[in-house]
Design a protein that fits this description.
InterPro entries: Chondroitin_lyas (IPR008929). The protein has 18 helices and 23 strands. The protein has 628 residues and is an alpha+beta fold. The protein is globular.
């Protein structure tokens, strides 16, 4: 990063942003005090103990593939520490904090527990199981993962905010934490070149490896931690190496700002890189030259470009369909202000509820400190901003397009078509997948992902039903499933927005490994004049037996007649959807969901419709419009 290498030759500045803890959002403070009161005593019984990650929870991953219970316990512990740091900082600034216990003592307890925690690595990531055959972590060769990065960053931000008070009252505590950070994070980071998230090919350092959101997430946390916890010389070594890694991540981002992991993973990918740049700029005294980072505006726009309406998104890859208003929209607000991007500011502002706290305790302590000291975000008001909702989006780097009937409004139809290839980060075998929304709410949908387990990122990923093409709105030539790998790709992608119509098409033959002379072309068109979406499949196959087209639908599906389906979604104020088709047969299957992650978007059920064309057909047409 040229901007960092050319920084002024001065000592590193503190990482905590300028701001006044005495003006902290009162709603946030009151919420944290209320939670502390709940933890201090319940019905005059003993205080609630700190969350304690157990060995049974840790070993549940290598033994049974279950990861959530351990990560939840670790997350609960870090959240309690985050709340305590904020209460202690506000109290030290003279704010009246009616906490039931001494906040600084609570911070010290949380930090001590982190120092005593056997590992900072999340069980699902630890390579000790593979390298040593154990269900226990290695103390001598700790694994540096997202969990370790989050833990060391929490330690660093707590000390950055409260270090002097901690040292005065608890001499030796911060020294102990610095030693733990060196052993668990800084030494392994500097000693090993084979961290997969560095983007290095260990056999050829000039060729980047596969880059994904781990890179900026871990490296951004490592930069902040080194600046606080390391000596000057050690910090320079760590930070310079981390900057090299983030450079590789930024260099790999496409110029259109898209993230193949999906809109939700932008917040823990590109957004983490932006936070790392914020930290570096802070360390350099606000004098980093960011002119060379010309990709920033397009990257900042990616989440808003994937938005269907206030609460719904185009959910490619592992992203969820339903939005999360607790995400750190203050980050987008700050960068939108800094780069003078009114659409980004408006998108962020539209998610700021002035009657709610400015943040939650779940995003990490660094994000929490930043938002607490961002006065402009605290006074932002969603009532003053409208969602940008562009008329169309064409992200050629990941092959995703979106068009809506009315620019700047969620009402009316919207359609998305996905291209790309089947070896993307967080890939689903879903090339050609269509999402159709009416009044901002999906009707033709993508189920998304379930709760992560041992299969999710291993060789059994495509044994999970919702990762397979037969559970996406895509065709099945001769009944074939799409396969995993970069060779299985959408080809010859064409199209664009001509105003009255927006249309994109692609050949999907390679996604199924069809022979060279066979073809399957899918076209998705939004006709704004007739208020209609048309999905057309045209094919050339040696044998059509078993051929079908799948539509994944959300809502109560009624077969009006042989050629029509009505979809009534369980959302107030949205119109019913009518689908018409020219299939020969229709098979309708209601699927009950039992996974909490999927239920958070879709509730109890979704519906799979399989359209079977006539044996002699070479095309199938589906139209979608509002019911009349």
């Amino acid at each position: 990063m040229t901007a960092w290498s050319q920084r002024p030759a001065t000592a590193l500045r503190p990482i905590v942003p300028d701001g006044d803890w005495s003006s902290i959002d009162r709603r946030l403070l009151d919420a944290f005090v209320a939670q502390a009161a709940t933890e201090a005593a319940r019905d005059d019984r003993a205080a609630t103990p700190w969350p304690q990650p157990l060995f049974s929870q840790y070993s549940a991953y290598p033994l049974a593939g279950e990861r959530l219970s351990y990560e939840t316990a670790v997350g609960d512990r870090l959240a309690r520490l985050s709340r305590a740091v904020v209460l202690a900082a506000a109290s030290a600034a003279g704010v009246a904090v009616a906490a039931p216990h001494d906040p600084l003592a609570e911070v010290a307890d949380g930090l001590w527990l982190l120092a005593e925690q056997t590992t900072w690595c999340w069980a699902a990531h630890d390579d000790a199981f593979r390298r040593f055959g154990t269900v226990t972590p290695s103390l001598d060769e700790p694994f540096l993962d997202l969990g370790a990065g989050e833990a060391v960053a929490a330690v660093a931000w707590a000390i950055a905010v409260l270090g002097d008070e901690l040292d005065e009252r608890y001499p030796g505590l911060t020294d102990r934490l610095r030693a733990e950070a060196e052993q668990r994070v800084f030494r392994p980071f500097l000693d090993r070149d084979d961290w997969h998230w560095l983007g290095l090919d260990v056999d050829d350092a000039d060729e980047p490896g596969v880059l994904h959101n781990w890179n900026p997430w871990i490296l951004g946390n490592t930069i902040a931690a080194a600046a606080v916890l390391c000596t000057w010389d050690r910090a320079e070594l760590v930070i310079d190496r981390a900057v090299d890694g983030i450079d590789r991540y930024l260099a790999g981002l496409p110029r259109d700002g898209a993230i193949d992991e999906g809109w939700e993973y932008w917040w823990n990918g590109a957004a983490r890189a932006l936070e790392a740049v914020e930290t570096l700029d802070r360390l350099a005294g606000g004098r980093l030259a960011l002119d060379g980072l010309d990709l920033l505006p397009e990257s900042l726009r990616f989440p808003l470009r994937m938005q269907l309406s206030a609460d719904w998104y185009v959910n490619v890859a592992d992203a969820r369909a339903r939005g999360d208003r607790s995400l750190p929209f203050d980050l987008l607000h700050r960068w939108g202000r800094r780069l003078e991007l009114p659409d980004v500011v408006a998108y962020a502002t539209a998610h700021r509820d002035p009657d709610a706290p400015v943040a939650t305790d779940r995003a990490g302590l660094g994000r929490l400190v930043r938002v607490c000291l961002d006065r402009e975000w605290a006074v932002a008001d969603a009532r003053s901003a409208a969602l940008p909702l562009p008329a169309s989006v064409d992200l050629s780097s990941i092959g995703v397009s979106l068009a809506r009937e009315h620019e700047g409004r969620p009402d009316g139809l919207a359609v998305s078509l996905k291209g790309g290839h089947n070896d993307e980060n967080h890939n689903h075998n879903d090339l050609g997948s269509v999402i159709v929304a009416l009044d901002g709410v999906p009707a033709v949908m993508d189920p998304g992902r379930p709760t992560y387990d041992a299969r999710t990122f291993g060789p059994d990923r495509y044994d999970i039903w919702c990762m397979r093409s037969d559970w996406h709105s895509v065709p099945a030539p001769r009944g074939l499933l799409q396969q995993h790998g970069s060779a299985f790709a959408a080809r010859d992608r064409r199209g664009g927005d001509q105003g009255a119509q927006a249309s994109w098409s692609m050949d999907l033959a390679a996604a199924y490994g069809l022979v060279e002379h066979e073809h399957w072309r899918r076209t998705a068109t939004l006709d704004r004049t007739s208020s209609r979406v048309v999905i057309e499949d045209v094919w050339t196959l040696d044998d059509t037996a078993g051929t079908a087209v799948t539509l994944m639908l959300w809502g109560d599906v009624t077969e009006v007649d042989q050629a029509s389906l009505r979809v009534r979604r369980p959302v107030a104020g949205v119109r019913d959807v009518m689908l018409q088709h020219d299939a020969d047969e229709v098979a309708i299957e209601v699927v009950r969901l039992d996974d909490p992650m999927m239920r958070s978007s879709w509730g109890d059920t979704i519906t799979r419709v399989r359209l079977l064309p006539r044996p002699d057909a070479d095309r199938l047409l589906v139209t979608v419009e509002a019911a009349r």
